[in-house]
């Protein structure tokens, strides 16, 4: 298994997906699924943590989320789509990781600190809320994913996942005779390859040559004659420590990290300023038409400044270059009116969403198909998850005969 080719990501099912999530994250998933081995997790446990009222809707929301993903182009033949709670292995890994994750690492997470201060009475003071990022780390590490496409808000959680993986490998990847076993494994590579491995390792350890590190890792991935255990040893030996049982995942940020909402703030569900993937053409039009514009344009003849207008921000991520230029120049010269400008944006968004909405309709009419896609996804995810857990249990001394 090559962790650098494996992707995991997830979302909490808490309502319909909006354009910001589509442009910021989902579009990159759709691209990645053709190049990577992708696992996409509907994080229903995460939706419940700290928000017990979600229990009323979480099951419907999970199904709707799957429909939004499928509509956006996530394909069950390329990627594994599954519901977190249908893969109970996530819970076991979370528990095992909780044994080695220092509580202060969680207590100082920004979301925990902020939310905890704001909402004392609700679920924000729960044990689960504190552990939210650790459950997310388990989601990722369970599949030994090297790459996690997320929005910028998730970077602290990714950092935690890396720290936990590193600590796990440090504590449980160690063997009394690690060095001797690693040296023995090198010999098994064959004369030419061992010499290359040794020189790359030396270049990395003595000169910090990252290129050499990556070359050595690629070299290891190609070796089909050594066991997985030896591969993990040699991987860990490159950097000194022990075996790498849980590789450290790196974040992959979307190209459009921040999408402006209808009111000029950040597009978010809670703020009520979002355009949803399944909004009807009429809803899209109503929302855009009511958007505020540059306040300087009181009358049609007043020139405006696009950078002060949320309509312009949406043009930049939805309209093609010609339309953007037309809007920018027309605004500054008062050559176009705001209604015209908004009309062009309505067209661009409708065009972008039309094929998605068509696909969504097919799935809406066939919920059993969606359920079977998720059921199959859970099976495939579990197969992979069980393998990791077997390694983790063994490393932690939990092997019973
Ligand atoms: N916490 C993420 C969010 O709020 C959702 C999530 C759960 C996730 N598990 C994950 C993201 C694993 C990436 C990988 O968006
Ligand atoms: Fe905004 Fe367009 Fe009006 Fe300019 S013309 S203020 S960019 S809506």
From TrEMBL:
Tell me which stretches of the chain form a coiled coil: 346-395
GO terms of molecular function: ATP binding; tryptophan-tRNA ligase activity
Q: What are its GO biological-process terms? A: tryptophanyl-tRNA aminoacylation
List UniProt keywords, sorted A-Z.
Aminoacyl-tRNA synthetase, ATP-binding, Coiled coil, Ligase, Nucleotide-binding, Protein biosynthesis
GO CC aspect terms: cytosol
Cross-referenced InterPro entries? aa-tRNA-synth_Ic, Rossmann-like_a/b/a_fold, Trp-tRNA-ligase, Trp-tRNA_synthetase
Q: Name one Pfam family in it.
A: tRNA-synt_1b
Q: Under which EC number(s) is this enzyme classified? A: 6.1.1.2
Look up the domain of life of the source: Bacteria
What reaction is this protein's catalytic activity?
Answer: tRNA(Trp) + L-tryptophan + ATP = L-tryptophyl-tRNA(Trp) + AMP + diphosphate + H(+)
Q: Of which family is this protein a member?
A: Belongs to the class-I aminoacyl-tRNA synthetase family.
* NCBIfam families cross-referenced by the UniProt entry: PRK12283.1
Q: What is this protein called?
A: tryptophan--tRNA ligase
Species of origin reads Stutzerimonas nosocomialis
């Amino acid at each position: 298994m090559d962790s650098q080719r494996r992707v995991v990501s997830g979302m909490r099912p808490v309502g319909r997906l909006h354009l910001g999530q589509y442009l910021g994250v989902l579009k990159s998933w759709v691209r990645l699924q053709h190049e990577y081995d992708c696992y996409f997790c509907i994080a229903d446990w995460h939706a419940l943590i700290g928000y017990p009222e979600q229990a009323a809707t979480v099951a419907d929301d999970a199904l709707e989320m799957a429909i939004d993903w499928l509509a956006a182009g996530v394909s069950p033949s390329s990627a594994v789509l599954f519901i977190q709670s249908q893969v109970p292995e996530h819970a076991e890994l979370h528990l095992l990781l909780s044994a080695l994750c220092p509580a202060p690492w969680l207590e100082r997470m920004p979301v925990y600190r902020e939310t905890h201060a704001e909402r004392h009475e609700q679920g924000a003071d729960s044990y689960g809320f504190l552990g939210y990022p650790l459950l997310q780390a388990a989601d990722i590490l369970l599949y030994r994913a090297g790459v996690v496409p997320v929005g910028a808000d998730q970077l602290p959680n990714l950092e935690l996942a890396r720290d936990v993986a590193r600590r796990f490998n440090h504590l449980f990847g160690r063997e009394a005779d690690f060095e001797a076993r690693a040296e023995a494994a090198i010999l098994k590579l064959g004369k030419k390859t061992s010499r290359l491995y040794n020189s790359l390792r030396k270049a990395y350890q003595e000169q910090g040559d990252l290129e050499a590190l990556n070359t050595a890792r690629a070299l290891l991935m190609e070796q089909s004659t050594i066991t997985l255990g030896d591969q993990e040893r040699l991987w860990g030996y490159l950097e000194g420590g022990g075996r790498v049982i849980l590789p450290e995942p790196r974040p992959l940020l979307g190209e459009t990290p921040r999408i402006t909402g209808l009111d000029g703030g950040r597009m978010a569900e809670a703020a009520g300023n979002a355009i949803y993937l399944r909004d009807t053409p009429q809803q899209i039009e109503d929302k855009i038409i009511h958007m505020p514009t540059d306040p300087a344009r009181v009358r049609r003849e007043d020139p405006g400044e696009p950078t002060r207008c949320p309509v312009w921000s949406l043009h930049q991520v939805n309209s093609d270059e010609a339309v953007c230029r037309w809007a920018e120049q027309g605004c500054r010269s008062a050559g176009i009116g705001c209604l015209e400008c908004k009309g062009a944006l309505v067209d661009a968004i409708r065009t972008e969403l039309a094929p998605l909405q068509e696909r969504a309709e097919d799935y809406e009419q066939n919920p059993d198909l969606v359920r079977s896609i998720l059921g199959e996804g859970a099976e495939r995810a579990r197969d992979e998850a069980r393998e990791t857990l077997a390694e983790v249990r063994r490393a932690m001394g939990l092997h019973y005969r």
